[in-house]
Please model this.
Amino acid sequence: MLRKAVIPAAGLGTRFLPATKAQPKEMLPIIDTPVIQYVVQEAIDSGITDILIISGKGKRAVEDHFDRNWELEQVLSQKEDESWYNILKQIDGMADIHYIRQKETKGLGDAILHARQHVGDEPFAVLLGDTIVDATIPVTRQLMDIYDQYQQSVVSVEAVPQEKVSRYGIVGGKDISQHLKKIDCMIEKPDEQDAPSNLAFAGRYILTPEIFKCLKSTKPGKHSEIQLTDAMNILMERESLYALRAQGKRHDIGNKMDYLKTIVEFGLKRPEFATEFKQFLKEVVR
Ligand code: G1P
Model:
C-alpha cells in the first residue's frame, strides 16, 4: 500500500524572476489557488496520506499556507458568509504534511535524497511542486495502479516537440501496451540528436526505496547537479522501470508561457468567470 509522497519545492525559480525573488514559485497563484495546493490535492485524491515537502531558503510561505492562520480564522468565523472560513479550514486540514529543508540547491536528485529518513523502506510517490496535471483520474493514482500491477518504479511521460527535448529528461524503451513502456535508457536534457525519443519525464514518479541507494552513488550530472534521471539509470540496472503515458494535461508552472496559458485555461473552466472571460478574450483577440 503506497501512502507517502514527496514534493520537491526547494528550487530557486530562476526562470520566473523577478516574481520569485522573494516568494516561492510554488506559491504562484492560478487565479486564487497556489500551484502547490493543486499538487497536494492531487496526492490526497490519489490516496496518499503522508506528504513530505522538500523546502528550502525563502520557502516559508509554503509552510504558512498549510498551517493554521488563527487571526484570519477568527475574523472569518464572525462573518455571515461561511464559505471563506470553510475554504481556510479545508486547506489546513488537507493532510499530514511534513517539511525538510534542502540547505543548498544541489539538484532534484539531492532534494529527493533528503526524504530518505522520512520515507524509509517503502515505495513512494514524487510530485514536482511546480507542475500541475489536469486529469480525470489523478496522474499519481494512474501511476499507483501500474505500481500495484508490477511492483516496480513507474514514471509519467509525455510526448514533447523534438526541438524541446533538451529541456527534459528523455526516455527510450519497449512497448508493453499502447500507453506503457519498459524503459531501457534515460538521458537528462539531451541534445536533440542524442535523444532516444521525444518522451519526456512529466513531473510524477513512483519509486522504490532502492532509489535512495542509487542517489547516494550518483555523481553530479547535467548543470553539475545531482540528477534524479541519473539515479534512475543506476536503478534500471537493478530493477525494472516503467514509463506511462498518463491521461491528463501537464502545466509546467516554472515556465512563464505555460503559466500564462494555464491561467487562461483554468479561468475558462471556472463557472463564475467563464462567460465574461470568454467574451473578454474574444474582444482582445479581435
Ligand atoms: C526536472 C527533471 C526532468 C523532467 C522535468 C519535468 O527538470 O530533471 O527530467 O523532465 O523536471 O518538468 P527541471 O524542470 O527541474 O529542470
Summary: The first strand starts at residue 4 and ends at 8. The chain has two domains: 4-254, 255-286. The chain has eleven helices and 13 strands. The longest helix spans residues 256-269.
